[in-house]
Task: structure prediction
Amino acid sequence: MIRALLTCCLLTASCALWAGGQPAANALRARLAGLDSLTAKFEQTVYAAEGDVLQQASGQMQAARPGRVRWQTDAPLEQLIVSDGQTLWLYDPDLEQVTIKPFEEDLSKTPAVLFIGDLAALEQSYSVSVEEGDNTLFTLRPIAADSLYEKVTLSFVGDIPLAMALWDSLGQKTDIHFRDVQPNSPWEPEQFVFIAPQGVDIIGDE
Result:
């Protein structure tokens, strides 16, 4: 899901160096700015506040700046989320239903925008810190009081994203681990447009 997409293992290192503020934000921006597009497979796990596993899913994702996402979850939790930077389509094949809404480029409410959006306002949306070890772990805490998430983490191996995690306001945690990551892979505009199959119920504005 694009609201969970952009979801990191907390990697600990025996010798870690923490930094925060502008240097950490600049380091994160530098890594993300180098990703004009991204293709990967993912494994996603949602945990309850008590630590119990609520849901597991896998799938494929594609992202490209500005604002383009194709996030497909495999069966049995099949779902497709597509954005062309202006419109967001959420398609549920089991319900034969597609929800159409405007795409929001609000970093604090849609952390997936970190991969595909304008990074100029990063510090206005998040307080950023970084832990350097075998991998690099960025921790982002939303500044806005109405944020849907308490905390977001992004883990990198070099400049390649390894994982993402989100903790929501109810204490649930969503982990997403990426594999077969292809940074700056070629893409076509039609990959980020959704045409509803005939007979599907449409909710929202076409």
Notes: The radius of gyration is 17 Å. Helices lie at 22-33, 113-116, 122-125.
